[in-house]
């Protein structure tokens, strides 16, 4: 049985389901708020602008550029968010925050040619 508040699929290490989150990703100050759906449960998450910039290897401060990189890196960001969710203490609630260090373990860095930020 999974810890309280943790979807059973996560407790077993099953990858996330393909359901579409209820809310689109949105810019909020210095982070992006987004959702992942696990076993039918919507989990609120955030990723810092710095984490996106570090993972992309590009450092634009324009919200449109950061959002474009978020969309490109979203699968990797969601892997990091799900990993953090699995590691949460029983009963922990609130946003699952993704930082630069969390993305280091979530996959290889993207190739520079794939970067979507415009000069």
Note down, in words, how this protein is organized.
This protein is of the alpha+beta class. The chain has a single domain, classed as Shew3726-like (Double Stranded RNA Binding Domain), CATH 3.30.160. 34% of the residues lie in helices and 18% in strands. Strands 1-2-3-4 form a four-stranded mixed beta sheet. The longest helix has 24 residues. The relative contact order is 0.21. The N terminus and C terminus are likely disordered. Pfam families: DUF1488 (PF07369). This is DUF1488 family protein. It comes from Muricoccus vinaceus.
List key phrases describing it.
single chain; 119 residues; alpha+beta; Double Stranded RNA Binding Domain; 4-stranded mixed beta sheet; disordered N terminus; disordered C terminus
Strand content bin: 15-25%
Order of helices and strands: HEEEHHEH
> What is the CATH superfamily label?
Shew3726-like
What's the number of extended β-strand segments? 4
Q: Termini distance?
A: 50 Å
CATH architecture identity: 2-Layer Sandwich
Q: What's the gyration radius in Å?
A: 14 Å
Weakly predicted, low-confidence segments: 1-16, 112-119
Q: Percent of residues in helical segments?
A: 25-40%
Instruction: Give the count of helical stretches.
Output: 4
Q: Give the helix/strand class.
A: alpha+beta
Q: How do the strands line up in the largest sheet? A: 1-2-3-4
CATH class reads: Alpha Beta
Please give the largest β-sheet. Answer: 4 strands, mixed
Question: Quick check: average pLDDT?
Answer: 78
């Amino acid at each position: 049985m999974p810890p309280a508040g943790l979807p059973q699929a996560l407790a077993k290490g099953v990858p996330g389901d393909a359901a579409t989150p209820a809310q689109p990703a949105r810019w909020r100050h210095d982070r992006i708020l987004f959702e992942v759906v696990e076993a039918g449960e919507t989990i609120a998450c955030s990723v810092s602008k710095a984490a996106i910039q570090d993972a992309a290897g590009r450092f634009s401060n324009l919200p449109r550029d950061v959002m474009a990189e978020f969309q490109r890196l979203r699968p990797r960001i969601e892997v990091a968010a799900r990993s953090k969710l699995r590691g949460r203490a029983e009963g922990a609630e609130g946003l699952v925050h993704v930082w630069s260090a969390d993305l280091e373990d979530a996959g290889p860095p993207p190739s520079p040619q794939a970067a979507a930020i415009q000069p």
